[in-house]
Design goal:
Layout lengths: L6 H23 L8 H14 L3 E2 L11 E5 L2 E3 L13 E10 L2 E10 L5 H19 L7 H14 L3 E2 L5 E3 L6 E5 L16 E4 L2 E3 L5 E3 L6 E3 L5 E3 L2 E6 L2 E4 L4
Antiparallel strand pairs: 1-4, 2-4, 3-12, 4-5, 6-10, 7-8, 7-9, 9-14, 10-13, 11-12, 14-15
Helix pairs in contact: 1-2, 3-4
């Protein structure tokens, strides 16, 4: 069942998302090639979230050990923060969740470490644009499949893969709610998007095959062929006036 939010509840989610967006910016600015590690960024993210009055919603969620998912290069999602040192040319996916006054927000962004290859730049640009192609379809009266089809069409037009095993989701008082929001599918299908629907749209895009595998840590999901992957996500509210991004400063 899709839980519709009132305008006041959406405003509370927006406040949570504003905290998240600020933390995302500050943590990304702390990335230093040859110096910082995912563990450094994870500690900073938790500190900043708590200083803003929030709770890191990922920490302990289903046993996850970190406050942030930090996924490097071929890691698609759910990377456990470790002590590797970021190197020039890496790409780093930062994925945070924040609880503020009982309301969740969730966002992810993939950042370059120093100078990256032209191929990596293009992957990041296409994945980010795929996110906004999906958001543009999150209109009242549309269907979830309209978002899914828009993301898939844009990604595949640019000759990249769309991960099938992982999808976006509803969000609100819980981190994961109905509906599921795949990044592939057919327009005109799936649940109707009604005003008050709040969802996370999150394309996960690969340079090669869309197939993935889970590492021995039971969390980190990587591309099956070892090629790069990018991940961009916003929490979005469907309103009578169009889609509203809740995870921005």
């Amino acid at each position: 069942m899709i839980e519709l939010k009132t305008p006041g509840e959406i405003d509370m989610m927006r406040a949570s998302g504003k905290v998240l967006a600020s933390v995302m910016r500050q943590v990304s600015e702390a990335i230093e090639p040859g110096k910082t590690t995912p563990l450094d960024l994870d500690a900073l993210a938790e500190q900043l979230i708590r200083e803003a009055g929030g709770i890191p919603s990922f920490k302990g969620y289903r046993g996850f050990p970190g406050s942030a998912c930090i996924s490097v290069n071929e890691a698609v999602i759910h990377g456990i923060p470790d002590d590797r040192i970021f190197q020039p040319g890496d790409i780093v996916g930062l994925d945070f969740g924040v609880i503020l006054d009982d309301w969740h927000s969730d966002s992810a962004w993939t950042f370059p470490v120093g100078e990256i290859s032209d191929d990596a730049k293009r992957l990041l640009n296409v994945t980010k644009e795929a996110l906004f192609q999906g958001i543009a379809k999150a209109k009242a009266g549309a269907r979830v499949g309209d978002i899914s089809a828009a993301v898939q069409k844009y990604v595949e037009k640019n000759r990249y893969g769309v991960v099938r095993d992982l999808v976006g989701h509803g969000i609100g008082r819980s981190l994961h709610e109905e509906p599921s929001v795949p990044n592939f599918g057919k327009a005109g299908r799936g649940p109707v998007l009604r005003p008050g629907t709040t969802i996370c749209i999150e394309p996960m895009v690969t340079q090669g095959t869309w197939k993935v595998k889970t590492l021995a840590d039971d969390w980190t999901i990587v591309t099956k062929d070892g090629k790069l992957s990018a991940h961009f996500e916003h929490t979005v509210a469907v309103t009578a006036d169009g889609p509203q991004i809740l995870t921005q400063e």
